[in-house]
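OP here, attaching both records as promised.
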Amino acid sequence: NMAYVMLIRYAVRVMEGDSGLAAQLQTLLEEWIRHRSDMVSLEAARAMCQLGGVTGKQLTSAVSALQVFLSSPRPTVRFAAIRTLNQLARTHPEAVQPCNVDMEGLITDSNRSVATFAITTLLKTGNEASVDRLMKQMQGFMAEISDEFKTIVAEAVRSLCRKFPAKHAAFLGFLAGVLRDEGGYEFKRAAIEAIVDLAKHVPESKEAALAHLCEFIEDCEFTKLSVRVLHFLGEEGPHTARPTMYIRHIYNRVVLENAVVRAAAVSALAKFGAAAVADPALQKSVRVLLQRCLDDREDEVRDRAAWSLRMGAGEATRDKYVRDDSTFALAVLERRLVEYCGNPAAAAQGRFSFDGVPRISRAQEEETRARTRLETMDAVLTGSAVSAPAGAAGAKQASEPGTPTAAGAMDVFEQQAAYADKLNAIPELAAFGAQPLVSSQRPVDLTEAETEYVVRCIKHVYESHVVFQFDVTNTIPEQVVEQVEVAMEPEDDIDGVLAPVVVVPIPVLACNEPGTAYVAFERTDTDTFPTATFACTLRFVVK
């Protein structure tokens, strides 16, 4: 049986490396799914569920086998089956729905690990009508599972907050309840972040969520979580109907907590006084509280209070130093600083200039961080790894922009900085580096994965140029092509808007060795943002 398991894993690796054999090996996997050994059948079903680009029809045999295993008398088999279905529900929830009745029977399973995966899978595949019932069932066994599985449940509820916003009252009640229970830092952090997400994306729940967070920090044993909640109260509290309600809870932290929490509370108080919606009476009250903080025994707290009083003295300083939430794109700033420090000639010319570093709003930064958190959340819920593979090969893969590992490990700005480095290293495109790289889009496949020449495109937008990056892979054995380039013919009228300026071909493209070609356009009218469609033709010479 172990030999069959290893054979299945080798088959999956072959399918990942050679898509031409996928159809034949999928047939083998379906045969192994019907194997008499539970171990072999489970491994084949898991492999089928994890294949990229698999359709719901192709998953039918694997899901049917896993559905049978859900009623197995062996806990290990039930656990393996429900964990695989949990992972599949992330990408193909409709394929897992036929198992809902069987999974509901596992909610009361004596093995709490199985019960946890059953509930979180049902939350992904169920509908809005089943949410209330599932939330009540979860409350019944939260005290009986470990913190690790409590974290998984909290992350699952967090993902549902956006899916079913109308059920925010049920979600908020559940999360507030688990915050009162005993638990470790990671579990409480997951619950706090779920409440924060709910307050941000469901405005009707904001005041109730803030009230629950105020209750939590009154008896919080984790300094980091207190700081996180205080920061969020400072961001959202001033814009509620009764901001004074939250000021009382925040000032209690100044009186009762350690220096780190007191400093965070002072910063939160300053945001209430500097908010554009704050009335004069509220601003005066906040100033009185901040003046009391000037006598604190910790210098960090005193410094923050003094700075807040100074910056809040006038409207102009408040707008510039407190209300302006824009920040530098940190990855781009880091790259420019490294380049400046590593170039003696640049240092000799004068001080470092921030002109070439783009500024982004706090909302853009939070959106990027949220995207990264969602990817990490999916990895936690499915049990997949989020770190880059070890070794030199893994390091090389992680450093290559656009690879799945890089996309999972880096946020948008870090990946954009990596793209900028790659583009600046090409002589024909190096001149564009004087402009900030505004954005880089996600890769788009232009061909099927089974074609002889696989092409995908990434669009890079500069202030006055647009660069199309074409990643090309030759899958024909024993064939080498030269002067590979992409001809882009506009199907719309782009005269006076876009003009082609550079075409960078691939000199030599061997089999299964990806290469990159570029086509650059200049935006002749930078005040307009044209929409155009291009017909792309791959041109090359076969050796």
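Record two, same layout:
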Amino acid sequence: YSHLNDSLRQVRRKLNRPLTLSEKILYSHLCDPLNQDIEPGKSFLNLTPDRVAIHDANASMALLQFINAGFDRTALPTTIHTDHLTMAEKGASEDLAAAKIRHEEVFEFLASASARYNIGFWKPGSGIIHTILFENYTFPGGLLVGTDSHTPNAAGMAMLGIGVGGSDAVDAMAGMPWELPCPKVLGVRLTGRLNGWASSKDIICKLAGLVSVGGGKGKIVEFFGPGVEKLGATSMATIGNMSAEIGATSCLFPYSDSMSQYLKATNRSDIADAASKNLNLLAADEGSALYYEDVVEINLDELEPHINGPYTPDLAHPLSKLGQAVRENSWPENLAASLVGSCTNSSYEDLMKVSGLLEQADRAGLKLKIPFFVSTGSEQIRATAEDAGFLEKMRKAGAVVLSSSCGPCVGQWHRTDVPKGEANSIISSFNRNFTGRHDGNPGTHSFVTSPELATAFAFSGSLSFNPATDSITNANGELFKFQHPKADELPLVFNKGEPLYQAPLPFAEAQQVDVVINPSSDRLQKLEPFEAWKNGNSLDLPILLKVKGKCTTDHISPAGPWYDYRGHLDNISNNLLTSATNAFLPDHMPGMAKHAVTGEIDATPVIARAYKNAGIRYCIIGHDNYGEGSSREVAALEPRYLGAVAIIANGFARIHEMNLKKQGLLPLTFAGPEAWGKIKDGDRVDILGVENIKQGEALTLVVTSKDGSRWETKVNHTFSEGQIPWLMKGSALNHVRSLKVL
């Protein structure tokens, strides 16, 4: 805190105005606060994070880049978390055992690389990355970067958590300045108090409906007001976690007594004591609200429970209006499954609420109408919930208790009850609900809500049910109405459970560890540096496809079974854009493209690989908010590996745009959205001026149609002067190697 306060004093002298809490924490982590240009929405900040966190689905590629760059040891505290690769199917013990067999090669690679490079390693079953971080590493006023878009979960501890790609993580791990576009701050003022069935999940679901999936882009969402004081730490973490669904850079709450209590309950009283002596750093300055980009007000007294979906997390429905929306849109009314858990909602408090509702149902003689799945956030939560009897009540009710991992939330759900393509509806306490997100089925209508509502719906089996007003008939013909559940945020004491952590080794011992990659492996592949930019690279480019509609990172690089190949670039590239809709082929299924030379129509990665093999460079046309969703870096690595030069769209999600730049691709936005509509099948494009690209200066796009006619438009980029070498050298890591800073 002494260092952070010293930096903050320098920033105060420079800006000479009240600071928001977001600005205090972010600017106190500047590498050079005296000379840093600070201009929200325009400048790029060079920052020193406090720690780095990586989950297993991204860790292989991040470590391969770290090794490829020649670094010898991490300079910042770093942890790897095995949470994404475990498939949910039969239950915790069976699923974990299966994962350890299926992913043995990857887990051994991650464990050995962690030991070699000074990284803490959380083993399978230990828990979900954000829950582990919240229980062990978050601290008020800190800055965390993580290779997952839901890293803003740290907001519940007054810590800035920012999602990044693997290359960004490598920079931070190596102790290099980490670069971030200077964000604006969106203020959210909370008044009143949650009541009835309303929960913290409804705050972020409501906000998503107000500002949309792109409303937080380039902004930190900072909560303030009297309503904040009544929220628990894990409840605030839920809100921060799902702030990723509005595209926010991060999210933040001021330090509170509930955070202090959580720190003490997780054996971090020393941090709570230190925070109490530095409250000036952990609350916004008086008068700083004038410097919010905008302010949204939410009255918690009037907040109704929300259910958001399907297919996008910003399609918000108050509980009282959900049934009407279902009927008007002809969505499947009967539910096929209910799921509780994920990093968003698997705290002790969440599970206590679920347990309480199950107890109510048991006393009333109610039985589950649909399959009900529950996952715990960590081994500590699992063991504590087991001690409290919560999990036994769930098993008794017929729920399947899954492992402490991501499971269905990230597409790791071996679902067999519904054929692929068949329309069905599910409800969950997850954070994201894109097409095919949970089960790979584009027909699944996924709705996200609070754990308590997901539980109540499991007994009704219908989206027209409103637990606040409706009753359910039990087997004896008796009517029963749920009472909204109450719960404690914290247990009297946490049970840590099984020890599943591998600590970093002493330097001398770590140097003796061998990290072996089998050359014949189909799971892991050493990376080769990408070629540097060559003059003419951006001329006469065919268009691989023109994306129409939502194109998230799930569309660009689907998850599910493809998680197996996240450490093997050649193999994972076989899923490139296989879920994206091609406007050039309206009568074909998603994931198809047409060869510009032969006219052949085939899967998009097949056509892309054919271009690569023929030495044909190409571009991709995106639509709005291209790359929305997760931080998965393979969504940028794949088009780069298969020969793409540029992605041109109406707009990009923050993390994906940075990932594209880091890998030596050229993300460009049309100066006007009407240009997207003018792009036709068979067009070829020239991007002029790339060899002389400069910060803040637009490039020219010349489009030549099949009939020889031409038109042009300006396209914008966000490369800073310090980022331009990434493009010219072929990637950010190539640039790092060229500086000989290793």
